[in-house]
Fold:
Amino acid sequence: MTDDPTDAGGAAGDDPADGAATGGQGAPRGGASEPPTERLALFPLGTVLLPGLLLPLQIFEPRYRELVGELLDLPDDVPRQFGVVAIKLGREVGALTPELYQVGCTALVRRAEQLPDGRYSLRTVGERRFVLRSVDAESRPYLVGDVTYLADDSGDAQAAGALVPVVQGLLHDYTAKLAENKALDIELPDLPDDPVTLSYLVAAAVVPDIARRQELLEAPNALSRLRAEQSLLRRELGLLNSITTVASPNLARIPPSLN
Structure:
């Protein structure tokens, strides 16, 4: 659901327990009283990646070319992935480390092509949410994080299931109103009935604001996410009913971003 030419992570060492380019499969860390963590190469980005969201990337920075090369050298049974974390404040420039949000999403490499000038063209997809426990900005050319993966569930399954048709209907009404107001003509795909999948699709479809989308990524379960989206869609419909033009949301693609 996104086209975003941008720039991904760097290099890892020879020890797979230390290296970040291990598809997130580094040695588990943490004691028995806390969830285990894994090492994961991090890619700070000026947007929020969601599970299921497509993210095309143009990789041109040397440290991130190195990471891609190492990911491509991994065995086929090891996930080729890195962590995307939205930048909260600042930019990732040289030795500067931006302030990052604490919850991110892994980007799984689906396709990689090396271009004649040395850049890589990647197509990735958001996979698993994680909490960033610590950041290592010294041992690699790019940031590496110790992360704990988050479960994705519906919460109260019955309540979440009951909200699914409500949110589906609001999303249909919202896109129809956009077309009526000559703002955007969108043909929706068949909407999923699974609460988790639907909650992320709606977040990607109608929430361009980074802070608000980050809140939805951090929601504890699909029920809380769908409830927030129900309120959001009702508010947006109210606004559309009172004005004739609106800013166009991006249902399928994140705006291009270059690091």
Notes: The first strand starts at residue 38 and ends at 45. Confidence is low (pLDDT under 50) at residues 1-18, 24-31, 245-259.
